[in-house]
Amino acid sequence: MSSNPHNPHDLGIDPDERTLDQHEPPTPLIDEGTRTVRPRVVRTHLSLFVRDPEVSATWYQDVLDMEVTARGPQWVFLSFGKKHHDIALIRAEEAATAGGIGLQHYGLEVAGDLDNWRRLYGMLLTKGVHVVKTTDHKVGFGLYFTDPDGNRLEFFHETVTDDEEGKRILGLYGAPSEPFEVEPLYG
Ligand SMILES: [Fe+2]
After folding, report:
1. CATH code of the domain containing 124
2. What is the distance in A from the centroid of ligand 1 to the CA of 166?
3. 46-73: per-residue pLDDT in tens?
4. If you measure from the C-alpha of residue 127 to the centroid of ligand 1, how many angstroms do you get, rounded to a whole number?
5. Taking every annotated instance into account, which residue ranges of this chain make up the domain VOC (predicted)?
6. Same domain for 108 and 89
7. Which residues surround the ion ligand 1 when the cut-off is CB under 5 Å?
8. Which of 16, 96, 105, 167 could disulfide-link to 92, CB 3.0 to 4.6 Å?
9. Arithmetic mean of pLDDT over the chain
């Protein structure tokens, strides 16, 4: 169905039924030139197989300050405070084991300055969370730790806030991940 820009019913609502800002074009579901369908990702969520969703949910509430938004016998959904869910925890098969293929880590870009990031480091250690490493990515610092099932998460403190500059630096340094010695802060 073709849209008519002069038809008020074609303005304001996106093909995926989001309400648009006044000057925002609707999602180009199909590129007119190539006829290919293109996704326009606006938000993301992650779903993980875990041994025990309730045990893991308690950890995600405690360590990441998430809130449970829905739960069933085999699953728990958690939010960082806005969305219906940012992370879903799904009960894995009884015999499931973690393998070398799959999720490497889930990066959480956190607000605040470097000292706040160091305080998160201190918080993880205080709670007995396994911290894997701290690294310098040239566009920010990464603090890697694991959940109860060994899934790796990252608190990312961004130091290059201009996205175009960030892309340039990542390419220039070859997606750098250098050891970064930093002391945690407590309180
Ligand atoms: Fe990352």
Report:
1. 3.10.180.10
2. 13
3. 999 999 999 999 999 999 999 999 999 9
4. 22
5. 42-158
6. no
7. 107, 154
8. 96
9. 87
Percent residues over pLDDT 70 in the chain: 87
130 and 109 in a common domain: yes
How many A from CA of 139 to the centre of ligand 1? 11
Record the pTM.
0.78
Predicted confidence (pLDDT) per residue in 122-167, tens digit:
999 999 999 999 999 999 999 999 999 999 999 999 999 999 999 9
Report CA(116)–ligand 1 centroid distance (Å): 18
- Tell me which residue of 145, 161, 180, 184 sits closest to 64, measured CA to CA: 145
**What whole-number distance in Å separates Cα of residue 111 and Cα of residue 97?**
34
Please state the domain count of the chain: 2
- Output the CA 140–ligand 1 centroid distance in Å: 9
Contact criterion met (CB below 8 Å) for 46 and 88: yes
Pairing of strands 46-50, 87-91: parallel
Give strand pairing partners of 30. 37
| C-alpha 68 – ligand 1 centre gap (Å) | 24
User: For tokens 């490493």, what's the residue?
Assistant: 133
Look up residue 164 and give its amino acid.
E
Rounded to the nearest angstrom, the distance between the alpha carbon of 102 and the centre of ligand 1 is 15
